[in-house]
Amino acid sequence: MSNLRFPLNPEPDKIFFALEDSGWTFADVSRYVALTCETILSDTEVKPGDRVAILMPKPVPFALTLLALMRMRVVSAPLNTRLTAGELAWQVKNANCRLVICEREMLALTSAMDRQIFELPTMTIHDRVSKFDDWGMLHFDDDFAIIHTSGTSGRPKAAILTYGNIFRSAQASAQKLGKLQNERWLCVLPLYHVGGLSIILRSLIYGSAVEFGRFDAGETNRVLSDNPITLVSLVPTMLKRLLDAKTGPWNPRLRLILLGGEAPSTELLTRCAAENLPIATTYGLTETASQVATALSELVYRKPGTVGKPLMGTQARIVDEGGDEAAANVLGEVLVKGGTVMRGYYREPGATAKALRDGWLHTGDIGYLDEDGDLFILQRREDLIVSGGENIYPAEVEDVLRKHPAVAEAVVLGLTDAQWGQRVAAVIETRAGQSATVEEIRAFAREQLAGYKIPRQITFVAALPRTASGKVQRREARKVFPDAPQSKL
């Protein structure tokens, strides 16, 4: 198969967007999508193959816009709504977006973007026939989206995912997780991340329902208790907060809690086991259209820490520093191969060549395969900080801190945090004769960085530890926080 026609399960009267008091069927959503296409084209000159950014905090307008761009054969570039105007402008320029589609509340953030800004108006369903009523054929080799992803050596890179990547990922996930006839997937993950995007796309492919919500421990607990949710995707921080706020049992139809983004703590898994929760731990990357490997509940509780075997059509291997195959239970770099692996990084041939070698994606993640072939991930990239499910690039924060007149050098680290998984910390070498307070540094950083990237812990030193060649020793710098629980390296 090299072409797709959505939805694959053509039942127009089935619910696609599930709402608590009602719902939109596939036919309803299709009409909204057709109208969205015509609305965009009435005021813009977007054409197939163009790249268009989506800046929308509300999930339903975001989903409609994403599906409309798919139908128009336009490449989407989802934007993180928590970024500053400068950060957003860089990503829009980096992806060479012709247009930014946003909601009214996002207009203030678009001032720094050298692109046409289009505010998507409120729409109602029309029953009229549209030239966009038919999805037509989508090709496996066509680009679906450009998604800015993790990176530790400067700014994030833009991964190019194709329709073939998306379909093969959905197919492999269904083979692993199984699929009920009346699936209802609760989506509280950000839609600008591949985890949230994949829920919309898989529901479209499977012909099942997705229910959108904003994560709030109390409200999400209520939804899980009152609504017939069968699947929910969470990061460990979310699950911990849900358990802390939980006052009663969740709906018995909940058959699977997909847990990804970072490794759950032993304490969290112990709590889940005590309640017999149906946990499935996953390992995935933006570069692989989400899941690489998944462990279902029996394996999760029998082998704490594992993410199981690679999904159908995906291979994983561990190599040492010399590139040789590592033996079972020996740490090394995780390499991944298969039909879900991205086409490359947009306009970065050097980074693409480094990441994709001989058909294998070099993830930079450290892990091992045990004697049964089950995968364990030790570290989600050596320097990457994952706080509350958000990826934070140390080099990006360091670049901002160095702009302060009192800062000669800075090292940004992730320290273990019981609530957020990790918190951002900084060790700052001050310039001779200069000084600054912690609050001054935070205020300076807040002008240029999203709130979750601001260092929560800052220490000033006269000189950072360096190697003989002058390179800062990050591991030595970490020792200035002797009383803080420290992340494994």
What keywords describe this structure?
single chain, 489 residues, alpha/beta, Rossmann fold, GMP Synthetase, Chain A, domain 3, 2 domains, 8-stranded mixed β-sheet, 6-stranded antiparallel β-sheet, 27% helix
Short recap of the structure:
This protein is α/β, with parallel strands linked by helices and 489 residues long. The chain is built from 13 helices and 28 strands.
The fraction of residues assigned to DSSP E strands is 25-35%
Helix content: 25-40%
Largest sheet: 8 strands, mixed
- Looking at CATH, which topology of the largest domain would you report? Rossmann fold
Please tell me the total number of domains: 2
Please give the count of helices. 13
Distance between the termini: 43 Å
CATH class call of the largest domain: Alpha Beta
Number of strands: 28
Kindly report the name of the CATH homologous superfamily of the largest domain: ANL, N-terminal domain
Shape: globular
Radius of gyration: 23 Å
Mean of residue pLDDT values: 89
Main sheet strand line-up: 3-2-12-11-13-14-15-16
Query: Which runs of at least 5 residues are low in confidence (pLDDT < 50)?
Result: 484-489
Given helix and strand content, the structural type is alpha/beta
In the CATH classification, which architecture of the largest domain applies?
Answer: 3-Layer(aba) Sandwich
